[in-house]
Design brief:
The complex is a heterodimer of chains A (266) and B (604). With 266 residues, chain A is of the alpha/beta class. Chain A is built from eleven helices and nine strands. An eight-stranded mixed sheet of chain A has the order 3-1-4-5-7-6-8-9, with helices on both faces. In chain B, helix 2 (55-63) packs antiparallel against helix 3. By secondary structure, chain B is α/β, with parallel strands linked by helices. Chain B folds into four domains: 28-40 and 537-598, Alpha-Beta Plaits; 52-123 and 481-502 and 516-524, no CATH class; 135-227 and 383-447, FAD/NAD(P)-binding domain (3-Layer(bba) Sandwich), CATH 3.50.50.60; 234-379, FAD/NAD(P)-binding domain. Classes of the chains: A alpha/beta (266), B alpha/beta (604). The A-B interface holds A 2-3, 26, 28-32, 37, 153, 156, 182, 188-194, 197, 223 and B 5, 7, 17-23, 25-26, 482, 485, 545-546, 548, 550, 582-584, 586-588.
């Protein structure tokens, strides 16, 4: 958030549907950010931002950026229709989804962003999640919006550049940020950056961008390549996985990566 | 902005809930049970430098382009950067964490770069105090001169007695000019003399004076080195044409004319053997006919066990010196009192001996003859402690051929200290410098009536100017490899081989061109930039970028008041009101400059 706001500057209005940032932003009457921020209902991240942007335009303000900052629950599940509607209308705003792959704030319930095989309180180790993570970037790209990108805090320069690029584009922008959650992922807080970096190096979460739903570009080619095992072994939510399970994840990751590389402009 | 907002009744609350206060009132630091601290730790190079240099400190200064400051940082500990930058076997490089990613940093070449780059300048250090207690130093080798230097810096009048007509000990007469040009040594000795150190040459202890003549001196430091060449103990050793390696090097270095025959055999595997072999090659060459003689080194073990500096062996081989491994002479063949050849025996390696190297065993029936008109034994040196054999000098104890000293460098006689090769088993200039410095610090304590305690064991470095850092040594696993890429080590250029061995016409008698040519500024920069700065905060801002609580503040901005690498925690401040102790900063720090400490407030 700090990096995103650094990239966007003071002329920014934040829209935060229910997610853990509803807490981090501060309980009334306090706020932890220095820009206007509107707390809004879970499902309205897209529509609230569209409304604020329309209000700004009525006032003749074309400079201010509207940024929705929503979790994976508010994006992949509950807020999907409002988001789809807003981007289909190509509303001029940035929608950033910080994705920790479950409803962490309410007690680690699975969302449609939870990856295959992961433990949550609603997908216990006896029945870990059996379906793959929803490909939200492909959904956004399928709307043919001007800009869609992935980012992680382990690559701050890439993240800042993507926010700056999004700010300079008119129309709907979507940025998907992988965001480790120490209690929900059962990991050491100190490893947050390392795990984010491993997600990229293991190709579980490649860093790329899609322009107009057509031009796919990989923005960070991993400096070194590591097996998925390195990424999952640091997280307790995957500790029940067998070697075959990890191999299955590896196959899926490899296939997705090949698909991405084939699609990307070199 | 940070004060708490209190609503006493519901009526105080606004109609539209709008947060105007800041969450700074919520001091989340109270959630923390571990805290990060900026603590510089010891880089392996610093730890392994026998002279106690702050290597990471001066590599950082090179990166900043502050060459004079870098040189003076070395001079705090070692008055011979130009010498050590050339002849030191650089143990610092063997543990360098950069080995894992492109090869160890070329530390010795960078040390030399600093000395060469500042050759026209003089150090700005001066003694601040003046004491009356006089100190005598016996031997002007690296140990004696380092001791003199550190004592002079502390304000003591020092007199150095040297047996030879020239100053510098083995640096002057034991190391060939192609490794250490004379002007480099002379420049560094001149800097020591500039501090008021007096050096009296042609004063040999035992011959020209006795220890008892030195009653005017309140402390004595004995650093006479190893002067006796070990004997081969084979028949024919006293024939003409046999010249010990050290003797050969000494005579060449003193400018005497030395003749070697067309086939030269050098016996031994240490640096003296290699130096003698390469010198013999040059002595037998002239510009019309380079390498007109054949020089062979005989070594009784294999290449692996050879104690000489690996690079020097490579260079000798490249120049045309031949090495016969697993060979030892059993007799020198003579004719009319002149050596004509060697009878040798082949060896095989048995069980490891007390030195940890495998013991060579002769193979029965493997004898062979080798032609040689000059034989150069170079199988080691011994201390000549005959000057200790009379009168009260006997009170100084000698053990296993070395003067016995404690961790402070003190002998068994109060007020008399010893160091360098005569008292320690290491045999390098850097160790001798460390040994002389140790004695200087001890003599300073002794003269001020303090306890001679607190010195590290004799095989660890002492520091004249200790740097404030955690003694924990940073290893590769402590670093964060995500921030470092593999970059190849920069090697210094070398003089072409034909030019090196072209003999005296090219460079003048005994003036062989230096083999290694050092770095230019660009190469030095590239090499210094490869340094990981292990354990040393260099303001890279990684902690600042990743702190999720925005609890880290940067305290300094360029231009920096002190060398960047020695801010030691003063570069950033953690705001413990808000640091929740997640540990991300310490985990991500590329160079292990942040430590984690448990909060103790819950302890009962």
């Amino acid at each position: 958030m700090r990096l995103a706001l650094k990239a966007l500057g003071e002329k920014t209005i934040l829209v935060i549907p229910a997610c853990c940032w509803s807490i981090i932003a501060g309980a009334f009457p306090y706020s932890s950010v220095k820009v206007p921020l509107m707390h809004t209902a879970f499902e309205t991240g897209g529509s609230a931002a569209a409304g604020i942007k329309a209000a700004l335009e009525v006032q003749g303000d074309t400079e201010t950026t509207v940024l929705t900052w929503a979790g994976d629950g508010g994006t992949f599940d509950i807020g999907l229709q409002a988001l789809s509607g807003a981007v289909e209308r190509n509303e001029d705003f940035i929608y950033a989804c910080y994705d920790n792959e479950a409803y962490m704030n309410t007690g680690i319930q699975r969302s449609s962003a939870t990856p295959w095989g992961a433990w949550t309180t609603t997908t216990p180790v006896q029945h870990p999640k059996e379906t793959p993570k929803k490909d939200i970037v492909a959904i956004m790209a399928a709307h043919r919006i001007p800009y869609t990108a992935t980012a992680t805090v382990a690559y701050p320069e890439d993240l800042v550049r993507k926010f700056q690029k999004a700010k300079g584009i008119r129309g709907a922008k979507f940025i998907h940020i992988l965001s480790p959650c120490p209690p929900g992922w059962k990991m050491e807080p100190a490893y947050s950056i390392r795990i984010s970096r491993l997600a990229v190096e293991s190709k579980v979460f490649p860093l790329y961008e899609v322009e107009n739903g057509e031009k796919w570009t990989i923005t960070v080619w991993p400096k070194r390549e590591v097996p998925v095992r390195e990424y999952v072994k640091l997280q307790g939510r995957f500790s029940h996985l067998t070697e075959e399970d990890i191999e299955f994840i590896q196959e899926n990751v490899d296939r997705e990566w090949e698909r991405l590389v084939a699609r990307a402009v070199q | 902005m940070t004060e708490e907002i209190v609503f006493k009744t519901e009526a105080d609350m606004p109609y539209l809930p709008m947060s105007l206060g800041t969450t700074l009132v919520n001091k989340t630091g109270s959630w923390r049970y571990i805290r990060p601290l900026y603590v510089d730790k010891t880089p392996p190079c610093n730890h392994d430098c026998p002279a106690g240099e702050d290597i990471v400190g001066y590599l950082a200064l090179i990166e900043e382009g502050k060459y004079k400051e870098g040189w003076e940082l070395i001079m705090q500990e070692n008055p011979f950067p130009g010498v050590c930058g050339r002849v030191c076997p650089h143990p610092c490089e063997s543990e360098c964490n950069r080995r894992e990613l492109g090869g160890a940093i070329a530390i010795h070449t960078l040390e030399r770069f600093l000395a060469d780059h500042t050759a026209s300048q003089r150090p700005s250090v001066q003694a601040s105090k003046r004491y009356d207690a006089k100190i005598a130093i016996i031997g002007s080798g690296p140990a004696g001169l380092a001791c003199a230097y550190h004592l002079a810096l502390r304000g003591y009048p020092v007199t150095v007695f040297e047996a030879l007509p020239v100053v510098g000990g083995m640096m002057r007469v034991g190391i060939p000019e192609y490794r250490l040009p004379r002007e480099v040594l002379e420049r560094e000795i001149a800097d020591i003399e500039a501090l008021g150190v007096e050096i009296e040459t042609n004063m040999r202890l035992g011959d020209n004076f006795k220890l008892s003549d030195l009653e005017d001196y309140q402390a004595i430091f004995i650093a006479v080195g190893l002067q006796k060449s070990r004997k081969l103990n084979v028949p024919g050793e006293d024939a003409e044409g046999v010249i010990p390696g050290l003797e050969l090097l000494k005579r060449v270095n003193l400018g005497e004319e030395v003749q070697v025959g067309p086939s030269v055999a050098v016996i031994g595997g240490g640096n003296t053997a290699v130096d003698a072999a390469r010198s013999a090659l040059r002595l037998g060459s002239d510009v019309r006919e380079p390498r007109s003689n054949e020089v062979t080194i005989l070594y009784r073990r294999s290449r692996e066990e050879m104690p000489a500096i690996a690079g020097e062996i490579e260079e000798a081989l490249a120049e045309g010196v031949k090495i016969r491994y697993l060979s030892a002479p059993i007799e020198l063949l003579t004719e009319n009192g002149w050596v004509m050849g060697l009878k040798c025996v082949k060896m095989e390696l048995g069980e490891p001996d007390e030195s940890g190297r495998r013991r060579p065993m002769p193979i029965a029936g493997s004898e062979y003859a080798l032609k040689a008109d000059t034989v150069i034994p170079a199988i080691g040196q011994e201390a000549d402690t005959s000057f200790l054999e009379t009168g009260e000098q006997r009170l100084i104890e000698v053990r296993r051929g070395h003067i016995f000293i404690d961790a402070a460098g003190a002998t068994t006689r109060p007020g008399i200290f010893a160091g360098g090769d005569v008292a320690t088993p290491f045999g390098t200039v850097a160790h001798a410098v460390g040994s002389g410095k140790r004695a200087a610090l001890a003599i300073d304590k002794y003269l001020r009536g303090e306890e001679l305690s607190g010195f590290p064991p004799i095989d660890e470095a002492v520091h004249a100017v200790p740097k404030d850092m955690d003694p924990a040594i940073v290893r590769f696993d402590d670093l964060n490899p995500a921030y470092f890429e593999e970059i190849e080590r920069t090697e210094q250029p070398q003089r072409p081989i034909e030019e090196r061995v072209s003999g005296f016409e090219y460079f003048g008698w005994a003036q062989y061109g230096e083999v290694n040519l050092g770095f230019n500024e660009e190469e030095a920069q590239a090499e210094a930039e490869r340094c990981f700065n292990c354990g040393t905060c260099n303001l890279c801002d990684t902690c600042l970028i990743f702190c999720p609580d925005v609890a880290i503040a940067r305290l300094v901005a360029p231009p920096y008041p002190v060398p960047l690498a020695r801010l030691n925690g003063a570069g950033y401040e953690v705001n413990y009101d808000y640091c929740k102790g997640c540990g991300v900063c310490a985990e991500e720090c590329p160079r292990y400059a942040i430590s984690i400490e448990k909060e103790i407030k819950w302890k009962k």
